[in-house]
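Changelog entry

Holo records now carry the ligand SMILES as an explicit input line rather than a separate metadata file. Below, a converted record for fe (ii) ion, shown in the new format.
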Amino acid sequence: MEPIFFGKGIEYRKEFANYVEILSERLTEKRFFHSLSVAKEAYRLAEKYGADTKKAFLAGLLHDICKDDEPNLQLQLLNEFGIILDTVEKSARKLWHARAGAVYLKEKLCLTDDEIISAVRYHTTARAGMSLLEKILYLADFTSEDRDYSGVEDMRRAVDVSLEHAMREALIFTVVDLSEKRMPIHTDTLDAYREVVRVSS
Ligand SMILES: [Fe+2]
Ligand SMILES: [Fe+2]
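Structure line, unchanged by the conversion:
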Protein backbone atom coordinates (compact mmCIF):
# COMPACT_ATOMS: atom_id res chain seq x y z
CA MET A 1 0.00 0.00 0.00
CA GLU A 2 1.18 3.52 -0.76
CA PRO A 3 -0.04 7.02 0.07
CA ILE A 4 -1.92 8.75 -2.75
CA PHE A 5 0.33 11.20 -4.57
CA PHE A 6 -0.88 14.37 -6.25
CA GLY A 7 0.55 17.16 -8.40
CA LYS A 8 4.22 16.81 -9.19
CA GLY A 9 4.40 14.18 -6.48
CA ILE A 10 3.05 11.66 -8.99
CA GLU A 11 5.88 12.48 -11.41
CA TYR A 12 8.55 12.29 -8.70
CA ARG A 13 7.16 8.95 -7.54
CA LYS A 14 7.70 7.65 -11.09
CA GLU A 15 11.06 9.35 -11.56
CA PHE A 16 12.47 7.86 -8.37
CA ALA A 17 11.03 4.38 -8.92
CA ASN A 18 14.56 2.94 -8.63
CA TYR A 19 14.95 4.38 -5.12
CA VAL A 20 11.46 3.20 -4.18
CA GLU A 21 12.48 -0.28 -5.31
CA ILE A 22 15.62 -0.17 -3.13
CA LEU A 23 13.55 1.01 -0.15
CA SER A 24 10.96 -1.71 -0.63
CA GLU A 25 13.77 -4.25 -0.24
CA ARG A 26 15.54 -2.56 2.69
CA LEU A 27 12.59 -1.49 4.85
CA THR A 28 9.74 -3.14 6.68
CA GLU A 29 6.31 -2.56 5.17
CA LYS A 30 5.46 -0.03 7.88
CA ARG A 31 8.68 1.95 7.39
CA PHE A 32 8.26 1.80 3.62
CA PHE A 33 4.82 3.38 3.95
CA HIS A 34 6.27 5.94 6.40
CA SER A 35 9.05 6.88 3.94
CA LEU A 36 6.59 7.45 1.11
CA SER A 37 4.33 9.43 3.47
CA VAL A 38 7.24 11.66 4.55
CA ALA A 39 8.16 12.19 0.87
CA LYS A 40 4.60 13.31 0.19
CA GLU A 41 4.49 15.62 3.22
CA ALA A 42 7.95 17.08 2.48
CA TYR A 43 6.78 17.81 -1.06
CA ARG A 44 3.66 19.56 0.29
CA LEU A 45 5.69 21.66 2.74
CA ALA A 46 8.29 22.54 0.09
CA GLU A 47 5.52 23.79 -2.19
CA LYS A 48 3.95 25.79 0.65
CA TYR A 49 7.20 27.35 1.86
CA GLY A 50 9.06 27.86 -1.41
CA ALA A 51 11.66 25.09 -1.24
CA ASP A 52 12.74 22.74 -4.02
CA THR A 53 9.88 20.21 -4.16
CA LYS A 54 11.92 17.54 -5.92
CA LYS A 55 14.76 17.64 -3.38
CA ALA A 56 12.25 17.64 -0.53
CA PHE A 57 10.45 14.62 -1.98
CA LEU A 58 13.71 12.69 -2.41
CA ALA A 59 14.99 13.62 1.06
CA GLY A 60 11.70 12.40 2.54
CA LEU A 61 11.81 9.22 0.54
CA LEU A 62 15.35 8.31 1.59
CA HIS A 63 15.61 9.69 5.13
CA ASP A 64 15.14 6.37 6.98
CA ILE A 65 16.98 4.18 4.48
CA CYS A 66 19.19 2.61 7.20
CA LYS A 67 16.64 2.56 10.03
CA ASP A 68 15.75 -1.11 9.70
CA ASP A 69 19.37 -2.25 9.46
CA GLU A 70 20.74 -4.14 12.46
CA PRO A 71 22.50 -1.70 14.84
CA ASN A 72 25.80 -3.50 14.27
CA LEU A 73 25.49 -3.02 10.53
CA GLN A 74 24.88 0.69 11.05
CA LEU A 75 27.99 0.95 13.22
CA GLN A 76 30.01 -1.02 10.69
CA LEU A 77 29.03 1.38 7.94
CA LEU A 78 29.97 4.38 10.09
CA ASN A 79 33.32 2.79 10.95
CA GLU A 80 33.99 1.93 7.33
CA PHE A 81 33.75 5.59 6.40
CA GLY A 82 35.54 6.96 9.45
CA ILE A 83 32.55 8.50 11.23
CA ILE A 84 33.25 8.85 14.95
CA LEU A 85 30.14 9.00 17.15
CA ASP A 86 30.10 11.38 20.10
CA THR A 87 29.11 10.27 23.60
CA VAL A 88 25.40 10.98 23.25
CA GLU A 89 25.24 9.36 19.82
CA LYS A 90 26.96 6.25 21.15
CA SER A 91 24.35 5.86 23.88
CA ALA A 92 21.30 6.59 21.70
CA ARG A 93 20.81 3.98 18.99
CA LYS A 94 17.93 5.95 17.47
CA LEU A 95 20.44 8.54 16.33
CA TRP A 96 22.62 6.09 14.40
CA HIS A 97 20.33 5.67 11.44
CA ALA A 98 20.52 9.36 10.54
CA ARG A 99 24.33 9.34 10.43
CA ALA A 100 24.35 5.95 8.72
CA GLY A 101 21.68 7.05 6.23
CA ALA A 102 23.68 10.11 5.18
CA VAL A 103 26.80 7.98 4.66
CA TYR A 104 24.87 5.27 2.83
CA LEU A 105 23.37 7.78 0.38
CA LYS A 106 26.72 9.36 -0.36
CA GLU A 107 28.98 6.33 -0.44
CA LYS A 108 26.74 3.43 -1.47
CA LEU A 109 24.09 5.10 -3.63
CA CYS A 110 26.51 7.78 -4.90
CA LEU A 111 24.04 10.58 -4.25
CA THR A 112 25.88 13.84 -4.82
CA ASP A 113 23.37 16.34 -3.48
CA ASP A 114 24.89 17.67 -0.24
CA GLU A 115 21.68 19.47 0.74
CA ILE A 116 19.73 16.21 0.74
CA ILE A 117 22.53 14.34 2.51
CA SER A 118 22.66 17.02 5.20
CA ALA A 119 18.87 16.99 5.64
CA VAL A 120 19.03 13.22 6.21
CA ARG A 121 21.91 13.59 8.65
CA TYR A 122 20.05 16.11 10.83
CA HIS A 123 16.51 14.74 10.51
CA THR A 124 16.63 13.19 14.00
CA THR A 125 18.60 15.68 16.09
CA ALA A 126 17.99 18.94 14.21
CA ARG A 127 20.70 21.58 14.71
CA ALA A 128 21.12 25.34 14.98
CA GLY A 129 21.08 27.22 11.68
CA MET A 130 19.12 24.63 9.72
CA SER A 131 18.54 25.11 6.00
CA LEU A 132 15.02 25.33 4.61
CA LEU A 133 15.27 21.78 3.28
CA GLU A 134 16.54 20.49 6.64
CA LYS A 135 13.60 22.08 8.45
CA ILE A 136 11.11 20.70 5.95
CA LEU A 137 12.38 17.13 6.31
CA TYR A 138 12.58 17.41 10.10
CA LEU A 139 8.95 18.58 10.27
CA ALA A 140 7.59 16.26 7.57
CA ASP A 141 8.83 13.39 9.73
CA PHE A 142 6.56 14.72 12.51
CA THR A 143 3.47 15.42 10.43
CA SER A 144 3.31 12.75 7.70
CA GLU A 145 -0.05 11.02 7.31
CA ASP A 146 1.09 7.76 8.94
CA ARG A 147 1.93 9.48 12.26
CA ASP A 148 -0.48 8.91 15.14
CA TYR A 149 1.37 9.94 18.32
CA SER A 150 -0.40 11.98 20.94
CA GLY A 151 -0.12 15.62 19.87
CA VAL A 152 0.22 14.99 16.13
CA GLU A 153 -2.85 17.11 15.29
CA ASP A 154 -1.35 20.11 17.13
CA MET A 155 1.88 19.61 15.19
CA ARG A 156 -0.04 19.44 11.88
CA ARG A 157 -1.76 22.72 12.72
CA ALA A 158 1.59 24.26 13.72
CA VAL A 159 3.25 23.28 10.45
CA ASP A 160 0.55 25.09 8.50
CA VAL A 161 1.05 28.29 10.52
CA SER A 162 4.76 28.79 9.77
CA LEU A 163 7.97 26.79 9.68
CA GLU A 164 9.41 28.82 12.54
CA HIS A 165 6.38 28.19 14.74
CA ALA A 166 6.41 24.49 13.89
CA MET A 167 10.15 24.15 14.54
CA ARG A 168 9.65 25.74 17.94
CA GLU A 169 6.77 23.38 18.78
CA ALA A 170 8.60 20.31 17.46
CA LEU A 171 11.77 21.07 19.42
CA ILE A 172 9.84 21.76 22.63
CA PHE A 173 8.00 18.46 22.09
CA THR A 174 11.30 16.61 21.57
CA VAL A 175 13.10 18.12 24.55
CA VAL A 176 10.12 17.44 26.85
CA ASP A 177 9.66 13.91 25.51
CA LEU A 178 13.33 12.96 25.92
CA SER A 179 13.49 14.53 29.39
CA GLU A 180 10.39 12.64 30.51
CA LYS A 181 11.92 9.39 29.28
CA ARG A 182 15.17 10.25 31.09
CA MET A 183 17.02 9.99 27.80
CA PRO A 184 20.12 11.96 26.78
CA ILE A 185 19.59 14.96 24.51
CA HIS A 186 22.08 15.61 21.75
CA THR A 187 23.96 18.92 21.76
CA ASP A 188 22.68 19.68 18.25
CA THR A 189 19.09 19.36 19.53
CA LEU A 190 19.80 21.65 22.47
CA ASP A 191 21.46 24.18 20.16
CA ALA A 192 18.41 24.07 17.88
CA TYR A 193 16.09 24.45 20.87
CA ARG A 194 18.04 27.41 22.24
CA GLU A 195 17.94 29.06 18.84
CA VAL A 196 14.18 28.81 18.29
CA VAL A 197 13.31 29.80 21.84
CA ARG A 198 15.63 32.78 21.67
CA VAL A 199 14.27 33.93 18.32
CA SER A 200 10.65 33.73 19.36
CA SER A 201 10.92 35.21 22.86
FE1 LIG B 1 14.43 8.69 11.15
FE1 LIG C 1 11.21 8.90 9.73
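Spot-checked after migration. The two ends are 43 Å apart (CA to CA). Residues 34, 38, 63-64, 141 surround fe (ii) ion (ligand 2) (CB under 6 Å).
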